[in-house]
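Before relying on records like the one below, remember that each one covers exactly one chain. Contacts with other chains, cofactors or solvent are not represented anywhere in the record.
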Amino acid sequence: MQAGGRILFITMEARASQNAGRVMDGPTNPMVTPLLTDLYQFTIAYAYWKAGKHNERAVFDLYFRKNPFGGEFTVFAGLEECIKLIANFKLTEEEVSFIHKSLPGSCEEGFLNYLREIDCSDVEVYAISEGTVVFPKVPLLRLEGPVAVVQLLETPVLNLVNFASLVTTNAARHRLVAGQSKMLFEFGLRRAQGPDGAIGASKYCYIGGFDATSNVAAGRLFGIPLRGTHSHAFVSSFMSPDEILERSLCSSDGSSTCEDFVTLVHSWLSKIQWLKSLGGIFGETNQSELAAFISYALAFPNNFLALVDTYDVIRSGVPNFCAVALALSDLGYRAVGIRLDSGDLAYLSSEARKIFHTIEKELGVPGFGKMIITASNDLNEETLDAIRKQGHEVDCFGIGTYLVTCYAQAALGCVFKLVEINNQPRIKLSEDVSKVSIPCKKRCYRLYGKEGYSLVDIMTGENEPCPKVGERILCRHPFSESQRAYVVPKRVEELLKCYWPGKSGKVREELPALKDIRDHCIKQLEQMRPDHIRRLNPTPYKVSVSAKLYDFIHFLWLNEAPVGELQ
């Protein structure tokens, strides 16, 4: 939706108002409508309608087959947007007219009338909580309802889950490498795949463990904390301190005013230059850079953070920052720190920290050694890991391109498969065993061991008894006869919950706030055994089925597979 050259990401209030009695806002992106689908979903729906099958009760599972980024875990995301789509799923007259023009001329008017009437009031959605660590083959969502309606949901739901889960997982992996003590900022807006990719990445990186974003629109939409300072262009736009016309700065408590802040900064710069403990590592610093720092400090005395690599980090950027920070300290302000955007980040951060500690000790400025050091510059998992191994003094990492574009893997590869229709289990077969679907409506559980870590996920038939704490249960690989193990769980968690009950009358799980989803994701990662989530050579997590479901899968497989004949 274009407005003044900008794409607006707003709630679908207009669409929501068409659905009387509905109170849930529409999807964040107004392009997410029933038409955000593949044409063949409408041709399939028409064929169902023509055959009189459109109202048959069907069950579909949405799941993925392989964890991304060479890892052994994934974080599920995108559920909230799916529920918002389903809550507001209603075709407008204009949309029905467009579908009519897009379908073959043989399409009957009765089908168009059917499209005008459909919504998701008879659809039920069961899902794993957003932010949960998930694994291949386990359904992330189970959709039940009239087969034609659920078929129309396939493409948009896949679209909403695939990228969301991929980028959340990418963010979680960066968090694990950086460690919990470091701050992570998402700086990917300018390199993201369009406005929608940027907005989505900001939201889902926050869920995955990032602390803030530079994306102002995402901050407004989702309440994500914002971070940002200034650019190299700002620094290089100044020529000398003579450009600074307004030089006065009031003290932090308002009790006094420094009439010439520029002179105060220069006096501190001279003192730093003569410190013997610094060994004369710098002489004359870049004065245009100093002018930029002074101007920024005058504008933001409570939030002064300087980009120090425009000219020379150690010989100019850091000492110029220190002079301005010391002048601010005289007036009761505390500078925030520096940002490094190029060079050897491990070395430069360590050297900068040494200078900060020296100034704290030699000049008696408490806390100066704890100045925050932020690093950016095309960071990714590998560079974070390398910096960590080298040893560094970085407190915050700003990460952009490799994070939001999921540079290491283009897509997650979620699929949407029919597993039951009219209470009859269905299976999709393939010569590639990994593509064989697991039939029937299932219940899914996570079994925990005595140390509190999750041991295995198990799928059972809908009517099988729930695994019980302290009772031994046989867990079988869905397709490999020899891979099986007994488990005595210390805790059992049912994974699928009802997030959209339709007409069933079941209690609906409330959609949590974004920060609660983020907290849940962090807690989930803490409950995983470290070897499952480590970056190199992670141990595969076990996904299993009950003995009864295993037998049924293979019975149905043999029943559906054609028998060959040798000639």
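Residues 1-22 have pLDDT under 50 and may be disordered.
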